[in-house]
């Protein structure tokens, strides 16, 4: 493995000045950023741990680097932010071939370039397993970031793209199947919906938004909890990804699509920045008999013949144990 | 172990609104910060990994939490910043008793409170070993942050406090001795020099500054490299901590004191914010025959009878293997 200083110098050289908000990047005790006057700053951090969020034998290093930054960018997208800079803390086993961190950084760098995000600092360390923590900073005009908490009763609920694609691949990997890590696979190279998020924030159409990292059932429950609402979604309206099924679309994570609410009177286009938008349900006042703390009771799903059933928020329980049928690698993707 | 959501709720309740720059803390896709107009933002990240930066049997959880935040605050101190908020990414083994993360957070929280730093977000995950990454954000008036790169030839070199205290304890731990983790021990509860750093920045006395995390020999070499200088320090002027020795004071890390340079004409007080300040040497123009990339040749130490010898920058090599005699746990503390 490269010595720390040589490794940092390599990163410093390949990640030049890219975003004018970064006054000083790698090479001092801290990075220095100068946000635009009148803008708020958004900050998100995401862990990517070997054997929890990825496996070396399944996921190429470039895909892990891409995925790592995509998770952070997806959080930024969910608030309608314009990404500025990222920071990477990277722990590497001493016996790891030098090609691994190089390809990891290439994957991260390619995605960073496409969103003008500057790698502005971080930390490196020895570690027993590959350990990455990504921090992404972004900006939005003061007070304009889209929160989880703004949804009103009667709002329509929308999702971008389609759901279950990532979980479907993970399911095949768990079954021992070989899956080619194609650049077009949303499991290996998810596309954070930064442009859609920003479009929605600029148009002021949206009352609340979240990214689908833990799965629809969990992330809609987050919006319900923070907005103090309940919700009904219609089974037949869920956009299921090719090869996936309803279960994977409802509870599978890591699609990194956006879930948002909008006033029923507003016209939301069927496609934003090239991404299809689907209305899947609506919100209601929080039921008095239901305790909003119990996520599993906030959402109702309408099946065939208008049959109602409660939708359990399965995703976040994967922190304690993997779910049958979904068996997510990731045990925490909030 | 606590489930993820319950754990996050616990953190959210105990870390209320503390810093007015934090518009929105834990509970959404990102935290939102509103820096003061006319101020730059500083960002630093530091990994704290079990068996690399600490050992469960040596370091109490509260000490690890304190140390974790202290490392970030020390980077902020080195730029003269006013800390605002921190973010914690925490990976925890599933068999860890719930008391460990609770005490870890108590240690972190006590230090955060004393500097009005708000824990504003982060991530949690399962992990095979305890994994913590701390991000600290701070502010300083635009263009006023103290860099490593501002030192001029002929500047005086100063350090705060005394050196080698942390490495001396680590040395005893490695020798199998029992060391009581006293609250007053700088190894277990290091005190980041935030007030001294801010005082120096406000007075404009300082040309360059860094915190002593990797050890004097390494961190002075960083200032030399970034300022394109060489330096001479005098052995008899090094303030050695009680029970430590010259070797530990020169090469031992994690003292979290500040190292800074100042124009020779300026009067630097002997004590700042209650902390003793010692002049240990001076800078020189970068020697043409020396390559600044070779850290080991940038610093000369004057011993007894004015005998000169080059001071090797031993610290950063610990990334590849622990040093004899010092055997630092931490393998990267940039």
Judged by helices, strands and strand pairing, the structural class of chain A is: alpha+beta
Strand content of chain A: 25-35%
**Helix and strand sequence of chain A:** HEEEHEHEEEHHEHEHEEEEE
Low-pLDDT stretches of chain A are: 316-334
What is the CATH topology classification name of the largest domain in chain A? Phosphoribosyl-aminoimidazole Synthetase, Chain A, domain 2
Oligomer: homodimer
Number of spatially distinct domains of chain A: 2
The overall strand count of chain A is 14
> Which value, in Å, is the CA radius of gyration of chain A?
20 Å
Give the CA-CA distance, first to last residue of chain A.
32 Å
Q: Estimate percent helicity of chain A.
A: 10-25%
SS element count, helices of chain A: 7
**Cα shape of chain A:** globular
CATH architecture of the largest domain in chain A: Alpha-Beta Complex
Mean pLDDT of chain A: 89
CATH homologous superfamily placement of the largest domain in chain A: PurM-like C-terminal domain
Please give the CATH class of the largest domain in chain A.
Answer: Alpha Beta
For the largest interface in this structure, which chains are involved and how many residues does each contribute? A-B, 72 and 73 residues
């Amino acid at each position: 493995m490269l010595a720390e200083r040589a490794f940092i110098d390599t990163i410093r050289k390949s990640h030049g000045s890219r975003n004018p908000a970064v006054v000083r990047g790698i090479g001092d005790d801290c990075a220095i950023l100068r946000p635009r006057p009148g803008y708020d700053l958004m900050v998100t951090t995401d862990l990517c741990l070997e054997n929890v969020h990825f496996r070396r034998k399944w996921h190429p290093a470039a895909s892990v680097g891409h995925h790592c930054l995509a998770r952070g960018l997806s959080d930024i997208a969910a608030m309608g932010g314009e990404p500025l800079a990222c920071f990477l803390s990277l722990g590497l086993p001493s016996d790891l071939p030098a090609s691994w961190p190089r390809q990891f950084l290439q994957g991260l760098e390619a995605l960073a370039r496409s969103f003008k995000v500057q790698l502005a600092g971080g930390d490196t360390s020895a570690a027993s397993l590959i350990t990455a923590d990504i921090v992404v900073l972004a900006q939005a005009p003061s007070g304009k970031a889209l929160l989880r908490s703004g949804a009103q009763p009667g709002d329509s609920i929308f999702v971008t793209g389609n759901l279950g694609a990532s979980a479907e691949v993970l399911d095949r990997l768990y079954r021992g199947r070989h899956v080619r890590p194609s650049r077009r696979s949303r499991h290996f190279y998810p596309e954070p919906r930064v442009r859609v998020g920003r479009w929605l924030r600029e148009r002021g159409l949206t009352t609340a938004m979240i990214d689908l990292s833990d799965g629809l059932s969990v992330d809609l429950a987050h919006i319900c909890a923070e907005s103090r609402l309940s919700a009904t979604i219609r089974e037949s309206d869920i956009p299921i990804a090719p090869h996936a099924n309803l279960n994977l679309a409802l509870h599978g994570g890591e699609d990194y699509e956006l879930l948002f609410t909008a006033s029923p009177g507003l016209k939301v286009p069927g496609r934003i920045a090239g991404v299809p938008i689907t209305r899947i349900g609506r919100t209601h006042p929080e039921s008095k008999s239901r305790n909003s703390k119990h996520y599993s009771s906030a959402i109702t799903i309408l099946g065939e013949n208008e049959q109602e059933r409660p939708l359990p928020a399965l995703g976040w329980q994967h922190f304690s144990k993997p779910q049958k049928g979904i068996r997510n690698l990731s045990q925490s993707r909030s």
